[in-house]
């Protein structure tokens, strides 16, 4: 089946704007891609970029004396004693 109204001059006129818009969009995308590639591939990696990040001098563990606050905080320093390991049970036959 063919289209009932095939006026080629009118169709060229109607499609001219969208075709120009698509061409401009593709051109902008290609220029942007080339710009990004030139920025990323044109720079050399220096020793500073590859250096390990600086270590913070923070320690992990319980806070210094009395700086823990909680629901029953009275303002007095809190101390925590480690739990004692239970004594091993004797083996049968000993």
In terms of topology, how is this protein built?
Layout (H helix, E strand, L loop, with lengths): L7 H34 L5 H4 L44
Short description:
With 94 residues, this protein is an all-alpha fold.
Structure, described:
- The chain has 94 residues and is mainly alpha-helical.
- The chain has a domain at 8-39.
- Helices cover 40% and strands 0% of the residues.
- It has two helices and no strands.
- The longest helix is centred in the first third of the chain and has 34 residues, at 8-41.
Fraction of residues in helix: 40-55%
Report the count of strand segments: 0
**Mean pLDDT, nearest integer?**
77
| Proportion of residues in β-strands | under 5%
The major pleated sheet works out as: none
The number of distinct helices, counting runs of at least 4 residues, comes to 2
The class by helix and strand makeup works out as mainly alpha
Q: How far is the first residue's CA from the last residue's CA?
A: 101 Å
How do the SSEs run, as a string of H and E?
HH
What kind of assembly state do the chains in view correspond to? single chain
Apparent shape:
elongated
Can you tell me the residue ranges where pLDDT is under 50 for at least 5 consecutive residues? none
Question: What would you report as the Rg, rounded to the nearest angstrom?
Answer: 38 Å
Keywords: Membrane, Transmembrane, Transmembrane helix
List its salient traits.
single chain, 2 helices, transmembrane, membrane, 94 residues, mainly alpha, transmembrane helix
């Amino acid at each position: 089946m063919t289209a009932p109204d095939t006026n080629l001059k009118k169709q060229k006129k109607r499609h001219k704007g969208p075709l120009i818009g698509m061409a401009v969009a593709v051109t902008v995308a290609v220029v942007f891609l080339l710009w990004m590639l030139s920025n990323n591939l044109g720079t050399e990696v220096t020793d500073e970029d590859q250096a390990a990040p600086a270590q913070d001098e923070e320690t992990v563990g319980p806070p210094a004396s009395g700086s823990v606050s909680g629901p029953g905080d009275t303002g007095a320093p809190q101390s925590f004693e480690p739990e004692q390991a239970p004594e091993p049970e004797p083996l049968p036959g000993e």
